[in-house]
Amino acid sequence: MNYAHVPLPAAFAGPAPAVLGRPFSRRTGFRGLPFVADRRAGTAAACWAVPASGGYYGGLTTGAAMAEAFLKFLRDDESELPPVWLTDIVQSFMARFEAEGGQAMADRRPDDWSAGFDSLRGQQAGFFNTLCRALAAAAKDLGDGLDDISYGDLARRGDAGLGFDHGAYMASLDGGEA
Question: Can you give the pLDDT of all 178 residues of the chain as single tens digits?
């Protein structure tokens, strides 16, 4: 799959406020990806430690590049890949969204957004749009098991999850009454 990107105009490119690449890093695996903070960073957004700079279009480019880094890692890594990584990335984006102004900032007109919020929105769009293209390709190439499932069946499974009594289930595991 070709993940061609549109290069940013060179006339507007300047030095990055921080460099994502860690050529001398001893971290490996998921923790070695350029957007993941060192364990000692103590941040609520450890799985999206990317500076919010470059505006929307710079963020779009950065987010797409980090998605490709994640996809390359998934392709190259030979260990058992825990599905929690994408969840951790999403949670980090949520924490960063709040740190950059959250819903109050999102409710403003885009030309009234802070520079950091604008950049983060670009990073989110670049990251998730790139992942969506990869997921679409994977679903088309590897998703033949989906052909036997109807949207109605999926809606019923979703409804079952929405109606699930988590408290009663947890109590039953502890030997309590359901």
Answer: 555 566 778 888 887 777 676 554 566 788 889 999 887 778 889 999 999 999 999 999 999 999 999 999 998 888 877 789 999 999 999 999 999 999 999 999 999 999 999 999 999 999 999 999 999 999 999 888 899 999 999 999 999 999 999 999 999 998 755 5
Q: pTM of this prediction?
A: 0.84
Residue 3 lies in a domain: no
b/e string for 124-157 if b means 16 or more Cβ within 10 A? bebbbebbebbeeeeeeeeeeeeeeeeeeeeeee
Instruction: Let me know whether 90 and 154 are in one domain.
Output: no
Give all strands (DSSP E) within 21-135, no chain letters.
none
